[in-house]
Specification:
By secondary structure, this protein is mainly α. It has one domain. Helix 3 packs antiparallel against helix 4. It is globular and about 65 Å long. It starts with a helix and ends with a helix. The model has no long low-confidence stretch (mean pLDDT about 85).
Length: about 260
């Protein structure tokens, strides 16, 4: 039993590592073909609408509710030790540096990544990708790059909005449930947050946008097994991109502390 489990686990790890290698190869192709013409700006704008504008609702709910919960948890916990006044500083730093980039990216990996993987998977199954190649056009240039560029533009902007919504949600709870003065909360945020805090979070989002879009495109383009494979590719895209976001967050945080020093 233990031997079978170890063999199965090893196979899954090898499959995951092989997928990471192939995702890296796809990323190399994308970097190579981005400068080539045509640019397909119209397709990129369409993807910005689908990835960015249509994700506003889920970002609003995620960021606002997370800010409310964090303020309530920290407030009730610190109140026992007389540290309720530190809630604005702790919550705002946590949201801007970690919570908003990671949580919003995970939600976008579920929504955007699944959408891209299923859409490209359906195109692969119905041989639309093969038709694009037959017409002498690169699928990377026409299908993959617009989605990656749209993700690079949309994800950091959505997370920047998530920062504001998360802090706003924390302020609402701090005022209504913890009894803090709104001007005190606002002034604490101004004296706590600096530009590097926002830039650190946005840098993470920039990297996470590659994790989401490139991974989703890889799984969508490599669907096997007909329509059933589309579901497997969608699931694989969400799981892989989520793992990359969570693991990558540690190394990015370590890198930022090494470079910035705070």
């Amino acid at each position: 039993m233990i031997a079978d489990f170890a063999i199965t686990l090893g196979e899954r790890i090898l499959i995951f590592l092989r997928s990471l290698g192939e995702i890296g190869l796809l990323f190399r192709k994308v970097i190579k073909e981005i400068p080539d013409r045509p640019l397909h700006l119209r397709l990129t704008v369409e993807q910005i609408y689908h990835i960015g504008i249509k994700s506003l609702g889920i970002v609003f709910v995620t960021a606002f509710s997370t800010g409310m919960v964090m303020a309530l948890q920290f407030g009730l916990g610190l109140e026992k030790f007389g540290g309720k006044l530190y809630v604005p500083k702790i919550v705002s730093l946590s949201i801007v540096r970690e919570i908003a980039p990671v949580f919003c990216s995970l939600m976008l990996a579920a929504r955007v990544g699944a959408g891209i993987a299923s859409e490209l998977g359906s195109m692969t199954v119905t041989q639309q990708i093969d038709a694009i190649r037959a017409l002498g056009t690169s699928p990377i240039k026409r299908v993959v790059i617009p989605r990656i560029l749209a993700s690079i533009i949309s994800v950091p902007l959505l997370v920047a909005l998530g920062n504001l919504l998360g802090i706003l949600g924390a302020m609402v709870v701090s005022v209504s449930e913890l009894g803090l003065d709104p001007m005190f909360f606002y002034q604490k945020i101004l004296t706590t947050l600096v530009v590097t805090d926002f830039l650190a979070g946005l840098f993470k989002c920039f990297v996470f946008s590659f994790f989401i879009s490139v991974t989703a495109c890889y799984f969508g383009l490599n669907v096997k097994g007909g329509t059933q494979g589309v579901g497997s590719a969608t699931r694989g895209s969400v799981v892989t991109s989520s793992i990359l976001i969570l693991v990558g967050d540690f190394f990015l945080t370590k890198l930022i502390f090494i470079v910035v020093g705070t």
